[in-house]
């Protein structure tokens, strides 16, 4: 005779099933996020400008095929004026060497104590990482899946072209990352201020410090693709017999293999101090090299920590921590830039070549003939042309990348010569 299950046992099994489902959801959420919870960090402007009359910059123009893939990619009108990109909002972070960016997985059981002491999530080195997605990945997904929900991305790719009369292009020492607070003429010791009629309150929920300190966790890399050919067709217009307009629909280029040119840590002068003995997560402190009082000044010990670049990278069937990146293409800001407002900010310091290639393909890296400008489309000159992709992300291994930084904002200025 078959025995029936008692109501109490039914209730017991149901409760256990619900608990298992809750645990499953918690585990999935824990391993699908990086070091932080959701945040909102804004990059107001990413500006690329020439510090030399020998260099000009242009937007990247693309066309797409019926599958949503890029069918043509080339430079728009080259200009001496700065090229500015806007509208960037970060809600996630990731990690990597500037060329390969990833999302590791975590030891869920260790997360609570690690997060409480500000160490971030405990990375499981034995599990493979997921590839981090960029805004361009999200845009491609939207083109190919117009009726589906957009996908989440962790970092930004900004593409542009550079033409130069000289084969070597450098990032000048004045290249810098400036927070909203510093752009308004204040140091990061200031929490509330007004600018152009707008009142700002930059206080973090995790301590009496400015959330723009997130700048300390920002990383920037440049990937170069030298062009072996460039197509720019100009059509005459009514302004004059030789004046013309670029036909954007016919722009294209042929490029060599992309190579990382620089991984830049722009703000090593910022450190989020978290006392591991302190269990109260609302008493964190922001220490900076420009701290106005001893309590918020970067110590020598902290400076030694911030002037080392760290990240995770894929390794075998898991990941490994690079706790002191010594790659020759990794640069940590070592200079100071005096702004017109009187506030000094960290800058790259020394000029860095961004046209060094392992296999430079000398036979292909030849100058191409391009119209100088639209004033006279019959006038052409020879230029070296390179497509650059600037990757910008919040490096999850940094203390400043912790959940304390919701609301941070900054601008990036790259100067080329």
Structure description:
- The chain has 417 residues and is mainly β.
- 12% of the residues lie in helices and 37% in strands.
- The protein contains 5 helices and 28 strands.
- It has helices at residues 7-31, 111-116, 135-144, 180-183, 300-306; strands at residues 41-50, 55-64, 70-75, 83-90, 95-96, 101-103, 130-131, 156-164, 170-171, 176-179, 192-195, 198-201, 218-231, 234-236, 244-246, 252-255, 259-265, 270-273, 285-288, 311-315, 318-322, 330-332, 335-338, 344-347, 352-353, 368-371, 380-394, 409-416.
- Strand 26 (368-371) and strand 27 form a beta hairpin.
- The longest helix is centred in the N-terminal third of the chain and has 25 residues, at 7-31.
- The chain starts with 6 loop residues before the first helix and ends with a strand.
- Residues 21-37 have low confidence and may be disordered.
Q: Which keywords apply here?
A:
417 residues, mainly beta, 28 strands
How much of the residues is beta strand, in percent? Answer: 35-45%
The radius of gyration computed from the alpha-carbon positions, rounded to a whole number of angstroms, is: 25 Å
The secondary-structure class comes to mainly beta
Major sheet: 9 strands, mixed
Total strands: 28
Mean pLDDT: 87
State the low-pLDDT regions, or none: 21-37
Annotation field: number of helices? 5
Shape: globular
Measured distance between first and last alpha carbons: 89 Å
Percent of residues in helices:
10-25%
């Amino acid at each position: 005779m078959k025995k029936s299950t008692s109501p109490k046992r039914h209730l017991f099994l149901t409760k256990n099933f619900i608990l298992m489902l809750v645990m499953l959801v918690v585990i999935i959420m824990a391993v699908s996020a990086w070091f932080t919870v959701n945040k909102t960090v804004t990059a107001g402007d990413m500006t690329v400008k020439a510090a030399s009359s020998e260099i000009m910059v242009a937007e990247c123009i693309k066309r797409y095929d019926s599958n949503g893939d890029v069918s043509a990619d080339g430079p728009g009108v080259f200009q001496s004026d700065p090229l500015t990109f806007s509208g960037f909002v970060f809600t996630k972070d990731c990690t990597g060497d500037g060329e390969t960016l990833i999302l590791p997985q975590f030891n869920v059981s260790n997360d609570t104590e690690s997060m409480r002491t500000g160490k971030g999530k405990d990375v499981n080195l034995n599990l493979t990482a997921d590839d981090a997605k960029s805004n361009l990945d999200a845009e491609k997904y939207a083109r190919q899946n117009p009726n589906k929900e957009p996908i989440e991305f962790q970092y930004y790719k900004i593409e542009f072209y550079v033409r130069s009369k000289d084969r070597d292009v450098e990032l000048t020492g004045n290249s810098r990352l400036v927070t909203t607070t510093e752009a308004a003429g204040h140091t990061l010791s200031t929490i509330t201020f007004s600018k152009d009629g707008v009142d700002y309150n930059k206080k973090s929920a995790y301590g009496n410090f400015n959330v723009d300190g997130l700048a300390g966790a920002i990383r920037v890399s440049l990937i170069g693709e030298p062009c072996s050919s460039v197509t720019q067709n100009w059509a005459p217009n009514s302004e004059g017999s030789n004046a013309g307009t670029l036909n954007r629909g016919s722009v294209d280029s042929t490029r060599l293999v992309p190579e990382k040119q620089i991984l830049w840590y722009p703000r090593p002068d910022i450190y989020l101090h978290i006392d591991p003995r302190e269990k109260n997560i609302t008493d964190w402190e922001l220490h900076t090299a420009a701290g106005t009082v001893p309590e918020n000044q970067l110590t020598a010990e902290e400076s030694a920590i911030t002037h080392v670049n760290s990240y995770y990278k894929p390794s075998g069937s898991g990941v490994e921590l690079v706790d002191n990146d010594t790659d020759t293409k990794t640069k940590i800001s070592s200079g100071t830039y005096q702004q017109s407002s009187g506030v000094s900010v960290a800058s790259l310091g020394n000029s860095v070549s961004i046209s060094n290639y392992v296999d430079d393909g000398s036979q292909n890296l030849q100058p191409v003939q391009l119209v100088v400008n639209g004033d006279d489309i019959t006038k052409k000159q020879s230029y070296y042309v390179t497509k650059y992709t600037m990757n910008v992300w919040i490096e999850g291994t940094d203390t400043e990348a912790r959940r304390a930084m919701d609301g941070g904002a900054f601008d990036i200025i790259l100067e080329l010569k």
